[in-house]
Amino acid sequence: MTKTMQIKGMMCAHCEANVKKALEALECVASAEVSHENGTAVVTLTAAADDAVLRDAVTAKGYEVVAIA
Question: What pTM value is reported for the model?
């Protein structure tokens, strides 16, 4: 199962790394492919995850989650 997150505020590869690390630290996340150029994170889940858990992990790093699909 994958979810695509639209994220505002990422400007560089360092931002990508921050978001990737935050998402992959969650037990329910197998991997995250993050692009500051597209403003997205495609998250591969190992189990069902509430969108709020994903949103909280990213907003805690200072970025804004616009949408999760």
Answer: 0.95
Average pLDDT of the chain is: 97
Structure tokens at 38: 């597209």
Nearest to 43 by CA among 12, 15, 69: 69
How far apart (Å, rounded) are the C-alpha atoms in residues 49 and 39? Answer: 21
Reduced 3-state DSSP string for the chain: CEEEEEEECCCCHHHHHHHHHHHHCCCCEEEEEEECCCCEEEEEECCCCCHHHHHHHHHCCCCEEEEEC
Domains assigned to the chain: 2-68 (3.30.70.100)
- Gap between the Cα atoms of 58 and 50, Å rounded: 13
Which of 17, 60, 10, 1 is CA-nearest to residue 40? 10
